[in-house]
Amino acid sequence: MKHLLSIADLTPTSAMSILDTAQEMSRVSASSVKKLPTLRGRTIVNLFLEDSTRTRISFEAAAKRLSADVINFSAKGSSVSKGESLKDTAQTLQAMGADAVIIRHSASGAAQWLADSEWMSGSVINAGDGTHEHPTQALLDAFTIRKHLGGGTGDLRGLQVAIVGDILHSRVARSNVQLLTLLGAQVILVAPPTLLPVGVESWPVQISYDLDAVLPIVDAVMMLRVQLERMNDFFFPNPREYSHFFGLNRDRLRTLKSGAIIMHPGPMNRGLEITADCADSARSVIVEQVTNGVSVRMAVLYLLLAGLQEEEPSVNS
Amino acid sequence: MSNYLIKGGALADGSKRDLYIADGLIVEKGSAITHPAIASAIVIDASNSLVLPGFVDLHTHLREPGREDTETVLSGSRSGAAGGFTALSAMANTSPVADTAGVVEQVFRLGQEAGLCDVFPIGAVTQGLLGKSLSEIGAMAQSAARVRVFSDDGNCVADPMVMRRALEYIKQFDGVIAQHAQDPDLTQGAQMNEGIVSSRLGLRGWPAVAEEAIIARDVLLADHVQSRIHICHLTTAGGVEIVRWAKARGIQVTAEVTPHHLLLTDDEAISYNPVYKVNPPLRTQADVMALREGLADGTIDIVSTDHAPHPTESKECEWQEAAFGMIGLETAFSIVQATMIDSGLMTWTDLVNRMSIAPAKIGKYEKQGLDLMVGSPANLTIVNPSLSWRVDRDLVKSRSRNTPFHGLELPGVVIATMFNGNVTHG
Amino acid sequence: MSVALPAADITRALMRISHEILERNSGSQSLVLLGIPTRGVHLAQRIASNIATIESATVPLGTLDITLHRDDLRMQPPRALMPTNIPSVGIDGRDVVLIDDVLFSGRTIRAALDALGEIGRPKSVQLAVLVDRGHRQLPIRPDFVGKNLPTSLTQSIKVHLMEMDGCDEVLLESQGGAS
């Protein structure tokens, strides 16, 4: 595997290999000396053309724990023609000898476009492209779920996971639906019909408009961020009505089955899709997701960059 | 002016006829030409080929004035001649917009100077294509360019009252409104066909209903005011059904389909390669089949290219930043042969009708789209359906390279094109 | 291909190493055994059970994966990581015995010493190997050796263990044909 662009590129085996590697990486993160020499001499560029401090610092921490040299390249490309700048930027990074580019971009498909171009030869890691995918977020979510559920074997078969909220605009949902399904879990999407994409009926999921009916049966519930601006595009009448039907609150928290966990990819809109007492409850693994994010990203960097790159390699040796 | 003998070719109906061309006209037609000047004629070998009336494109973006870096009337004419066309219709969305007699006359004159095919300017329906107030439709109709087709293509004439008035106004000179059917509110920020593929790619969806709702509205308006409406680039099965229904009711509606919508589907977007980004978007396989069926049974009257040149940098970027459009003049014939003739859906006579006779009728282009009769202007193209060729974007005559067919092996080679008795290609 | 160590010799060598470890460290009180994956892990388990028999004491036993510290990562496709399990007593102030199957260039042990450095500060680090085949590229020597096996660089050593391979044996293979 040279790039990580989409969960669609993974097999169950390669996905498990990333999660198993992340398991070992988490031991490093927990030890007193959080530094490994593994990627010494490798140059990794954080190309963040859309703001995301959390994801950027998570990748940066992962790369630094593996001793890679990290260059942060952040630019808001709204004023310049982004097409020109992406090509020019890629060629610049190539000329500087970047071994990998971690790209965050507001345009769906930007990571794949960069990987398919001949502008640079290094690995491309998708750190979120528009409303398409965010594969490392899905991997860290799956990692978190399997730590708590499924007996730690990595086998998510039989588990039910609800993803609640703005599915239409969510790259996290698109990646998670594929990965959780790949690992054997059953995904239930819960959202108002306006926030589900046309074509969702072709996804391997169940659909529900009724959060109260879903909460008692799922093992994990993943709340998605809802942006208030959506209200202006008629996706829902107002925040109060959204929270009333699709927000996680104290009353709904009580209906979760025992052992079920609450997740959120962050940043949270406390009070809109999730109340503070739910986010901070014992069920919540939201802070742990952040920790796991570093381990998962270390695993991805290790698997993509540590070894010899063959022409058509796979994650598995 | 040279005289020519086109020898050994077959006409669309399959009959073998040689043609003798002199002074821009077809002078003699038969299996053995007897004209006394025959010895001086340049012989064009048309054996194994078909001799067809020159193709007429009712929908071409020539980009001049304004974006001469991507196409000019001259380069577009060369591209058209290479594709077998003897007439192009220059869309109004230039800079400045073709919404006055001055601009359409300029484009018309540039076409005459190029001399490679007729260039018929299309006038804007509304000033600046803004959809607010009518442009000088009468002045453009009366100008040297004799404009009969009006379109805001690129934009939809969205306001129903503006559309109604435009349809009424053009009746005085038997004009036609060519509508770009796209409800702007339903397609804000839209990137590709809304459906299964868009749901996975996370690209903003462009629903079929945004096209169909406008088509339905406009055929009803055309019926109400008894005027002519032409639907540009039909792309959906539902749109075909509406047009079929309207024709059955006797409404004066005509419709076109582009070669790319006859072949490609929204699956192409999976590559995120913006060369497949086009307005209206590529649709599903079911739509493609309905379009082919509609073109075959005459519900869709004509094939138009919607040839839309763009500079490299407008396509060498992220999908959502990229420009909409594809070039198509040089590949149109081959795509139609592949999708409609080789599949058995249409005959060569049908193809001549859809690509030459019918578009000329819609546009009122009197010297185009005529049967190859003695006395007719020698506007014709010679094609060899049994040869194939590989599309190479670096070899196109157009100034732009944004063809989605690059690298594809296509059937049907345009051997030569003749415009008013002059060889413009071959 | 020839059998350099049959099963009985392996068992005997491991028993001897177990005794030597106890002797060198005056018993098992301060010991921690760390096997290097994959076969070193099984050897460590056998030595631990030998010590349990000899001393009637349970010695802390763990595994130490050194992949992330290897200096030859770029020469091969990505390797899967093996588990590292450090016993709960930790390694600080302990006498750590690293256990591996074959000692060759010494690079694995160099990586293991680096890996240990990130986990803690042992009182001493010792090395036990089943086979020492020579050809060291670093100044590293074993403290406990099952068998010294002089080899040429064209030969390879294969260690088979019951736990993974179904039988105990050490094979000497010649790549050039002549054995």
Structure description:
The complex is a heterotrimer of chains A (317), B (426) and C (179). With 317 residues, chain A is of the alpha/beta class. Chain A contains eleven helices and nine strands. With 426 residues, chain B is of the alpha/beta class. Chain B has two domains: 95 residues, Urease, subunit C, domain 1 (Roll); 310 residues, TIM Barrel (Alpha-Beta Barrel). In chain B, 28% of the residues lie in helices and 19% in strands. The longest helix of chain B has 18 residues. The radius of gyration of chain B is 21 Å and the shape is globular. Chain B starts with a strand and ends with a strand. Chain C has one domain: Rossmann fold (3-Layer(aba) Sandwich). The interface between A and B is medium-sized, with 28 and 26 residues. Chain B: One of its GO terms (biological process) is purine nucleobase catabolic process. Chain B: InterPro entries: DHOase, DHOase/Allantoinase_Hydrolase, DHOase_cat, Dihydroorotase_CS, Metal-dep_hydrolase_composite, Metal_Hydrolase. Chain B: Its cofactor is Zn(2+). Chain B: Keywords: Hydrolase, Metal-binding, Pyrimidine biosynthesis.
Record keyword descriptors for this entry.
heterotrimer; B: 426 residues; alpha/beta; Urease, subunit C, domain 1; TIM Barrel; 5-stranded parallel beta sheet; 4-stranded mixed beta sheet; 11 helices; globular; C: alpha/beta; Rossmann fold; 3-stranded antiparallel beta sheet; 8 strands
